[in-house]
Amino acid sequence: MNCRKIEWYYWVLALIAILAIGVCVVALCCQKCCTQRFLLVINCLNVIVLVITACVALRTYNRSKKIEEADFLLKLRTMLTSEKNMQIHKALENNTQTIPIKYVSGLEIDKQYPFDGVDLYNYLGTLELANILLEMDIISESSFRSQFGYRIQNINIPAIQSMIVAEGAYWKELKELIKKFG
Fold first, then answer.
1. Which one is predicted more confidently, 70 or 35?
2. How far apart (Å, rounded) are the C-alpha atoms in residues 31 and 60?
């Protein structure tokens, strides 16, 4: 079994359970009538069952959040590894400083590359979706950094920066992503 840090709410729930057990023991030892002791013990047992249920619910919630994050990371990976996006990624990765992107009344890409401006917009838009998922706490920064951080460094080049500046209002999420990971 993995050793993991125990979240604070598990400690609180454990303390409540211990207190309920203590009250249960005191109830059994007290001099009150049998019915009162019985009701006190039943109430304490109800608290213990509630604590156990809360622990299971919290564990299930935490597990589902991890599964949700993994699912979104896999979907993001699938989107970023489409044929066109891989061509863009390879061009950025292999020629980081000199990829021939020019902004002249729209985005044009040198014909030596097998993608066009729309493909580049799609690639950058996919990375913007990642920032939205980060802001919503659906994926963690550490997971994103380990899986896709290099892609942000690849787009943090003068040609793309000038495009982002020229079309600033449209690239809010991308700017934030570059600020975090670039």
1. 70
2. 42
